[in-house]
Specification:
Keywords: Membrane, Transmembrane, Transmembrane helix. Pfam families: MFS_1. It is a multi-pass membrane protein. About 50% of the residues are buried. The chain has 22 helices and no strands. Helix 4 packs antiparallel against helix 6 and helix 16 packs antiparallel against helix 18. Helix content is about 75%, strand content about 0%. The protein is mainly alpha-helical. The chain has a single domain, classed as Growth Hormone, Chain: A, CATH 1.20.1250.20. It is globular, with a radius of gyration of 22 Å. The longest helix has about 30 residues.
């Protein structure tokens, strides 16, 4: 028996993994005001917990890509999903800053792995002209997960357990609502493993793929064999595009991280929205999902019309960079509706950019080393996210009366004058900075010759 369009069913599974990944990640963000109040954490504590997640994420990126290349997409992905699901469940028993930070660190170790695994799945199952769209589809899963998260976890957190389900209140104690949210969202990942193991194989190893679809996937490329030797670390680190793409993501991914981790808090403190009203953030994530699809579709159309893959991605990225200067007006808008409209434009552009810079990796790296190279490039993303967290925390909190942690000390040693200049200034300087990050990254990529790259020889 064969399944028609099996590659699209594969990307649907990756899409669902991304949905679960972001629901688990955004549970803390969506419930931040409630959790901070219950556990006695201020905004700097919140930033430090997010940074612990991102530190683990960075470390895991560097390891997970190589692990996926060695174990294969099927086994590697399953390991990461199980890890982060269990870490999310354990978070339900966090009692303070340290235990919450430890749980988020464990979550970060698991969650990073799905992205190099997803890029490897796309390289195995899709021809060049469909790759950006496939990446857009599974990335849209992340945005849908972030969209769904508030609607799922806020009702769970605010439910009257003491009155209607007292045994739950007795099991979890104080803060039973948000603790239940972590358990339920974590269990969903375990269930996802069932269809994954049933469907996923490499195309030539699958009994469910038709001969016509296999020919379409390979589309003139020499198929790689399981166990084929990948690049060494020296080969990876001396491949110039790795560094160009790493710095490109370091500069631009902090924009998306800001909307994931801080925008709900901005609406809460800067615009006066209460916990229940923060469900309005679904608009942001819907825009991100549309940006993911349109960005992938747009470059795919250019490739079908004869444009070289890398050049096609760069044309879309240029359009995105031209949209980002709307960012400073988000904080200055008088009404919430104008703020959200401008935010939609900025997030749409940021995600369309992200899809295409990710697709460049798949375009120019041999399939046997996709996971490793993607993970190194993506490490730049999390480093940028950590820097953003430190800067934004200083902006919104002002000077801290608490002893500085190791991340604060290290960051101040490198960027002390910058922190001093923005400390206590609120969110507006960050919205201004976001106007320039994508244009600057595009100039860097162009100056580095990224536009002259050609598809990798398999």
């Amino acid at each position: 028996m064969t399944i028609r369009g099996l590659r699209w069913w594969i990307v649907v599974l990756v899409f669902l993994a991304a949905v679960l990944n972001y629901i688990d990640r955004q549970t803390l963000s969506a419930l931040a005001p409630t959790i901070q109040a219950d556990l006695g954490m201020d905004d700097r504590d919140y930033a430090n917990i997010v940074n612990l997640f991102l530190v683990a994420y960075t470390v895991a990126y560097l390891i997970s890509g190589k692990l996926v290349d060695r174990l294969g997409t099927r086994s590697g992905t399953a390991i990461f999903v199980v890890w982060w699901s269990l870490a999310n469940i354990v978070t339900a028993w966090a009692q303070g800053l340290r235990s919450m930070g430890a749980c988020r660190f464990l979550l970060g170790l698991g969650e990073a792995g799905v992205w190099p695994a997803a890029s490897k799945a796309v390289s195995e199952w899709f021809p060049a002209r469909e790759r950006a769209l496939a990446i857009g589809l599974y990335t849209m899963g992340a945005t849908i997960g972030a969209t769904v998260a508030p609607y799922l976890v806020i009702p769970l957190a605010t439910y009257d357990y003491a009155g209607k389900l007292p045994f739950i209140e007795g099991l979890f104690g104080h803060g039973a609502g948000w603790r239940v949210a972590f358990v339920i969202t974590g269990l969903a990942g375990i269930l996802w493993l069932i269809p994954w193991f049933a469907l996923y194989r490499r195309p030539r190893e699958s009994k469910l793929i038709s001969a016509g679809e296999l020919a379409l996937i390979e589309d003139g490329e020499a198929p790689t064999e399981a166990g084929e030797k990948g690049w060494t670390w020296r080969q990876v680190l001396t491949f110039r595009p790795v560094w160009l793409l790493l710095f490109g993501r370091l500069l631009t991914d902090p924009v998306w991280y800001f909307y994931q981790f801080w925008f709900a808090k901005y609406l809460n403190t800067g615009r006066g929205l209460d916990q229940g009203s923060l469900t309005i953030t679904w608009v942001v994530y819907a825009a991100a999902g549309v940006g993911s699809l349109v960005g992938g579709w747009g470059s795919g159309v250019l490739v079908k019309n004869g444009c070289a893959p890398v050049q096609a991605r760069l044309w879309i990225m240029l359009g995105c960079a031209c949209l980002m200067p709307v960012s400073p007006f988000i904080a200055k808008a008088a009404g919430l509706s104008v703020t959200m409209t401008l935010t939609v434009c900025a997030v749409f552009a940021a995600l369309a950019w992200l899809i295409n810079i990710s697709a460049i990796v798949v375009d120019v790296v041999p399939k046997h080393s996709i996971g490793t190279v993607f993970s190194v490039v993506a490490a730049g993303s999390t480093l940028g996210g950590i820097a953003m967290n430190m800067i934004v925390a200083a902006m919104v909190s002002g000077p801290s009366s608490k002893p500085a942690g190791f991340l604060d000390q290290g960051f101040k040693a490198l960027f002390g004058p910058l922190i001093g200049a923005v400390e206590g200034k609120g969110y507006e300087p960050w919205f201004l900075a976001m106007a320039f990050l994508h244009p600057l990254a595009l100039l860097l990529l162009w100056a580095g010759g990224i536009h002259r790259l050609r598809p990798a020889k398999i």
